[in-house]
Design goal:
409 residues, alpha/beta, TIM Barrel, eight-stranded mixed beta sheet, eight-stranded parallel beta sheet
């Protein structure tokens, strides 16, 4: 063996007894108690081990720009125009450097796979796309990155944006996204995105139904087109904050439609908490979708970061366990099985959303492993316990020491 991770509690295991994980040629070769094998050893000392965290929805291209954007005016976030106003400052080198800083934080917190959403429009052209493609190549030793291109500022009203989307898909973008909230023709943009997904045989991941009230929701059209194009399991939507304004029975009904169509949902608690309820200055609504309810009705869900240090979310560190803990606080999740489901939304469910069938601690899979300073997934989420070691294809990429208290005497 090239490496043996010994004495690890496997998150997905039916037993709490520690096992050893043997790794050869970058893949998991064996899992079992006290493996009789020789090789470099990492002693997990009874700590939790799982597949690397999967970040399904982040914006590397516009991270770390809060210092160059105009400040908010009153309760209006105006995040889209504030970002649009500085896109002319985005060079390939600038995007690369800002994205690199954010990416390294994500890696240090245990992410080994990622889908990053990337804006295309005439203001930025393909500069961000070129930068993130290069970044993905340079950091392949630590993380697998796929790019989802989308039109943040409109598509049906911008032929140039449509041409940029096609160019990026021809040049290797693996996913196509949408943001119909910012298009004068919501349905037209959604139809066009499904057409492009069919033409290029790529998955779809949309920003959908951000808003304070449940009127005029686009999710019903997305479910209809997912069935029409036979794309169940290949379509995801992020935000869905309008859904939170529905009574519980209506939410359950929508959940059943999502499950039937095969549309997954990514919950983005930091951004949705920051952006929603701006129409009120007291008793502000939360706007964070109950992913546990959706999962319990057959919908696949993930929890992700979204924005870092920009007008949509002017803080963040790329720590997915912190995001799961934030979500659990906001949704008042308490039962152990529901907290464990939150952990799944960073790992196995996120990998399923990305259609990664080689994910997890199983023989033959890539040896992407995170060792967390916790005894269980519940403890990891409840206490925001940090990863102490991260391995990508069997090579250690991150080491974090435990804090040590120096008692007097």
């Amino acid at each position: 063996m090239d490496l043996i991770v010994r004495n690890a509690r496997v998150a997905a295991s039916q037993t709490t007894e520690p096992v050893d994980i043997g790794i050869a040629d970058g893949r998991i070769a064996a899992i079992g108690p006290r493996l009789a094998a020789e090789g470099e050893v990492y002693d997990a000392a009874g700590m939790l081990a799982c597949g690397g965290f999967v970040e399904t929805h982040i914006h590397l291209d516009k991270s770390c720009i809060i210092d160059r954007c105009a400040p908010e005016e009153g309760r209006a976030a105006n995040a889209v125009p504030r970002v649009a106003a500085v896109k002319h400052t985005f060079t390939v080198e600038d995007v690369y450097e800002r994205a690199r800083r954010t990416l390294e934080k994500c890696i240090s917190h245990g992410a080994t796979r990622m889908r990053t959403h990337l804006e295309l429009d005439p203001g930025v052209g393909l500069r961000s796309f070129e930068a993130i493609k290069r970044l993905a190549d340079d950091y392949r030793w630590a993380i697998d990155i796929e790019i989802c291109v989308f039109p943040q500022e409109g598509l049906t009203n911008s032929p140039q944006t449509d041409a940029l989307m096609v160019a990026a898909l021809k040049d290797g973008a693996k996913v196509i996204g949408a943001a119909p909230n910012y298009d004068p023709d919501h349905a037209g943009q959604i139809h066009r995105v499904f057409e492009l997904a069919r033409d290029f045989d790529v998955d779809i991941d949309m920003h959908l139904d951000s808003g304070n009230t449940p009127e005029a929701m686009d999710i019903y059209l997305v479910c209809e087109l997912t069935r029409r194009y036979a794309m169940g399991g290949r379509v995801a939507v992020g935000h869905q904050t309008k859904m939170t304004g529905m009574p519980p029975e209506q939410q359950r009904g929508l959940a059943r439609q999502l499950a039937d169509a095969g549309v997954a949902v990514t919950v983005l608690p930091a951004t949705d908490l920051y952006m929603m309820g701006r129409d009120r200055d007291y008793d502000v609504r939360r706007g964070v979708v109950d992913a546990n309810l959706l999962v319990e009705h057959g919908v696949n869900c993930s929890i992700s970061t979204n924005n870092v240090l920009n007008p949509f979310t002017p803080y963040g560190d790329g720590a997915l366990l912190r995001m799961a803990n934030l979500y659990a606080n906001v949704l008042q999740v308490s039962r152990p099985e529901r907290l464990a489901a939150c952990f799944d939304m960073l790992t196995v469910r996120s990998a399923r959303l990305l259609n990664h069938r080689d994910y997890g601690l199983a023989v033959g899979n890539p040896a992407d492993i995170v060792v967390i300073d916790a005894a269980s997934p519940v403890q990891a989420v409840a206490e925001i316990r940090h990863p102490l070691a991260v391995f990508k294809r069997g090579r250690r990429t991150v080491t974090r020491d435990r804090a040590i208290l120096h008692h007097p005497g």
